[in-house]
Structure formats: structure tokens, C-alpha cells
Amino acid sequence: MKRMILWGALVLVSAAGGAWVALGLTARPARSHPFFQDLPRDRALVIAHRGGAELWPENTLDAFRGALAIGADILEMDVHGTAEGVPVVIHDETVDRTTSGTGRVRSFTLKELQELDAAHQWENLRDTGITVPTLRQVFEEIPREIPLVVEIKESNPALTDAVADLVLEFRREATTLLGSFHQDVLRQLRNRDVRFATHLVQEEVIPFLAASLLFSEGLYSPPGEALLVPPRSGIIPLATRRFVRAARNRNLFFAVWTVNDPDQMRRLLARGVQGIITDRPDLAVSAVTDAAP
């Protein structure tokens, strides 16, 4: 009996070892996507969250123009669909917080939505003609060489296809990083066109984090090209030197959201993060400039 147990244990160990070796032989780092190739490499990047939500009415053309004017490297934005399915740039599923209206974005036609004041919460900008832009309007206004992060907020195949269609129509597949909190959205994008760059969703980050803690990130093949994570998730710190190093080892771009405190920015930059996603791109530009070699 003892001999049988010993042999069984040896078989299990051998099988586990074989699987470990097989993973190591087949695992591949993230591919080098054009989105990252022309970005500055001698410093971290400033990613204007919703265009800089603490400086201007968020997710508006005014915010995107302002962020670029003060030196942001990348514009981040969110997309929902109107009643007709038109991709529009707004974060919440309702218009209540950021406009003069109330109700779900999906309940408005495009015409009705753009009659709302997207600067209603800003007294100095109220009734100055600032509207919720369509993603098409953003693509038309912002030069193609400016990198964008476009977050699809709905798990909606039709909306995902509409966003993908616009990226291809405007030939922005090399300068647009597509993201979502919904794994099915990312799967749809990756299956549709290999030219799309995507970030990892939570279900993909967790196994990679576990592998990094075991110094085994070399066994993980990233399905996307970027890690965009908060500084911590509950009690678990994410923006650690170990996780940043693991991401670099797998050719993953590592950025942290949403960081608005200059001291925290400096701590993260010292750990080697490659991007700061912030509502205060003005403060981030200063922090990155000070930290640059």
C-alpha cells in the first residue's frame, strides 16, 4: 500500500512538473502593438481620465482639447449607446450626474441627447453649448496620431461592433486602445480583428497577479497588451514593484487609475509604472516631468 501511495505521488508530481514545463514552453509575452511604439519611452505617460474630469466637463470635446493643450499624452473616454445605437461619449448609464437632463442614455435619441447641456454642473460654463459628443465627432476632431483609450461601458454586441466599425473607418486601430469591464466585449473585439489593442479585464488580471506573486509570470500568455489597474483592490495592493516588473516581463503596458494626488503619483512613478490615469492631468504632467531622468 505504501509503495502504491509513493508511486501515485510520484506520478502526480511528474504530471504537475510536465504541465509546468509545457506552460513555460508555450507561454508568450504580449505582442508589441503599434499603439505603444511611438509613445515616449524615457518617461511615464499622462492619461487624461475622461479628458480631465476635475478640470473641465468630463468626456467632452472641450475637456479633450484642454488636456492636450496642457501636455497630456493619451485621452481616455467612455462610450454608451443612444436609442438608435449611436456610440456617444459619456461615463454613466444615465445623464443625471453630468448633464441638464435625467434618464438612461439608452432612452435618448442622439438629437435629444445633444440638446442637453453637458456642462450643466459647471456654473461658469453652463449654457455655453457644450454637448455630449458622439465617438464619431471625437474621431473627427482629435488628430489620428493622438492615442486614445476607449472604454465600452455596456455589454452590448451591437455597440461593440459600432465602436469597432468607427475605429476601422477612421483608421485608428494603431492609435486606439479598446477596453471594457466586460470580458465578452473584449473577446468580441479580439475575435473580430487582430489589429485591435485591448487591455486585460479583471478575470484576466487575477491569474496574472497570482502568477506574479509566485514569480511565475513567464507561464502566463497575456490576451491583451495593457494592464490598467487601480492602486489596490480592497486590501490587495496592485501597483507594487513586483507586479509592475511582472508586467514588463510579459511586455504589458502598466498604468494606474484614477490617481489625483501628486504625492501618490510620485510614489507610483518611483515604482516604475508607465502611465498615470488621472482627472488632474495638469498635476500629472508636473509629477512626470519632475520624475523624468
Question: Please, what is the average pLDDT?
Answer: 92
Number of domain modules: 1
Q: How many helical elements?
A: 11
Beta-strand percent range: 5-15%
Please give the alpha-carbon distance between the first and last residues.
65 Å
The biggest beta sheet, please? 9 strands, mixed
CATH names the topology as TIM Barrel
CATH domain class name: Alpha Beta
Output the helix-strand order: HHEHEEHHEHEHEHEEEHEHEH
Number of strands: 11
Structural class: alpha/beta
Catalogue the unreliable spans: 1-23
Question: What is the alpha-carbon Rg in Å?
Answer: 21 Å
CATH architecture: Alpha-Beta Barrel
Q: Would you identify the CATH H-level superfamily?
A: Phosphatidylinositol (PI) phosphodiesterase
Estimated helix fraction: 25-40%
Global morphology: globular
Short structural description:
Helices cover 39% and strands 14% of the residues. The chain is of the alpha/beta class.
Structure description:
- With 293 residues, the protein is α/β, with parallel strands linked by helices.
- The protein has one domain: Phosphatidylinositol (PI) phosphodiesterase (TIM Barrel).
- The protein is built from 11 helices and 11 strands.
- α10 packs across α11.
- The chain is globular and about 55 Å long.
- The protein starts with a helix and ends with a helix.
- The N terminus is likely disordered.
- This is GP-PDE domain-containing protein.
- It comes from Alkalispirochaeta sphaeroplastigenens.
- One of its GO terms (molecular function) is phosphoric diester hydrolase activity.
- InterPro entries: GP_PDE_dom (IPR030395), PLC-like_Pdiesterase_TIM-brl (IPR017946).
